[in-house]
Design goal:
alpha/beta, Nucleotidyltransferase, domain 5, 3 domains
Length: 388
């Protein structure tokens, strides 16, 4: 019975997330729940502060009704993303809108130092942008091998982390309910809750930065695998690459397309003087031919991986999250062209290979989505429900 109530309350809350300003009768039709069940769940969700009633409006046949919507002004969801070189911390409302975000370098600091820095950045954001709101909790996304169930970073080679109990460390420092997941899975949650509607059927998310990883979801399930190790594509072998990898082999996807590799190649090509990825990206976005060519070649290699993932998993859509896809003209087209040439399954790369729904806020959204997913999966019986 408890599981059924949770699932029904989740269905009601998701219906309001999808529709907004929705009548109780419409929720009943969307969810298949009885009018009495919807009324009961709505009352409970309003009591907890997740839903609010809007002013009465006239119905289609003149009969007035009171629409419901998410209460986006009462709570705030905290999100953090740990990248190889920097931290991103943000505040989101219940619709996943990023209200504010901060980014700061961490210089590869030890876990305890990064945890303290995240807590400090969060305090600054909460005081400066949401002093009257109640924090629901903190979602954290990072690369590497993350065990979502225990909140542990099992292994993150580029950070030098092994067996880091990130959830416990952050809970102790912030006092918040903390959830931790890999950033590709986090971004799938974001897309399915807030982004591409087709992602709810089946979706692959490929993240390419200094860390390269992937995630897959079908139906209502994001695949984790034993100890949440699914999505480890960093060491896929790609054509035309002899780039050495820290695993001891050469030609691995992550080593070939990582942001550090791009920066180094830009120096070797005399495009820039120092290995600085943001600098190379800015040059490419501004039309520098050498920088553009470097990113287009990288996009071609990313396209190899996309084609392979598409043929193995056959998703409704495959989302590529990469800064060059967002900022450099032609990169997404190059990836799609490579998929069209290599994939046996993908019939329409333009339709099926797409960019992120959250340009400019991807990392803050990834962290926040870890916590938002927990809320929308179980609004009644998670610790979140006690925040009000």
């Amino acid at each position: 019975m408890t599981g059924r109530r949770s699932a029904s309350a989740s269905a009601v809350l998701r219906a309001v997330l999808d529709e907004g300003a929705i009548a109780r009768s419409t929720i009943a039709r969307r969810t298949g729940l009885s009018a009495a069940a919807v009324t009961g769940h709505v009352a409970e969700l309003m009591r907890r502060g997740f839903l609010t009633e809007l002013p009465e409006v006239a119905g289609a046949v003149g009969r007035p009704y009171v629409p419901l919507d998410l209460d986006t002004g009462r709570f705030v969801v905290c999100g953090a993303h740990i990248a190889v070189d920097h931290l991103t911390v943000g505040l989101l409302d219940l619709r996943g809108k990023v209200l504010a975000q901060l980014e700061a370098p961490h210089h590869g600091a030890e876990p305890a130092v990064q945890v303290a820095q995240i807590a400090e950045l969060l305090d600054d954001l909460l005081i400066g942008h949401a002093p009257e709101r109640t924090p629901l909790g903190l979602g954290v996304a990072t690369g590497g091998w993350v065990d979502e169930a225990s909140g542990t970073v099992v292994e993150h080679g580029l950070l030098g982390w092994t067996g880091v109990p990130l959830r416990d460390l952050l809970t102790e420092v912030t006092g918040l309910d903390v959830r931790v997941d890999g950033h590709s899975r986090a971004l799938i949650h974001a897309e399915r809750l807030l982004g591409h509607p087709r992602a709810r059927s089946s979706v692959v998310q490929l993240f390419t930065g200094n860390v390269v990883d992937a995630a897959f979801a079908t139906g209502d399930t994001v695949h984790h695998g034993p100890r949440s190790a699914a999505g480890a594509v960093a060491h896929l072998r790609v054509d035309d690459s002899d780039e050495p990898c820290h695993c001891g082999r050469s030609g691995c996807l992550e080593a070939t397309v990582s942001e550090r590799t791009v920066a180094r190649k830009a120096v070797e090509a005399q495009i820039i003087e120092e290995p600085d990825f943001p600098g190379v990206l800015h040059l490419a976005a501004s039309g520098n031919k050498g920088a553009v060519a470097l990113f287009h070649e990288r996009a071609r290699i990313i396209g190899q991986a996309v084609a392979l993932l598409f043929d193995v998993l056959n998703p409704e859509i495959l989302i590529v999250l990469d800064q060059s896809v967002r900022d450099v003209e032609g990169c997404l087209s190059t990836i799609r062209d490579e998929v069209s040439q290599r994939s046996w399954i993908c019939q329409d790369a333009v339709k099926n290979v797409v960019a992120s729904s959250f340009p400019g806020t991807e990392l803050a959204t990834a962290g926040g989505a870890v916590m938002l997913n927990a809320l929308y999966e179980d609004p009644l019986f998670t610790d979140l429900a006690n925040a009000s």
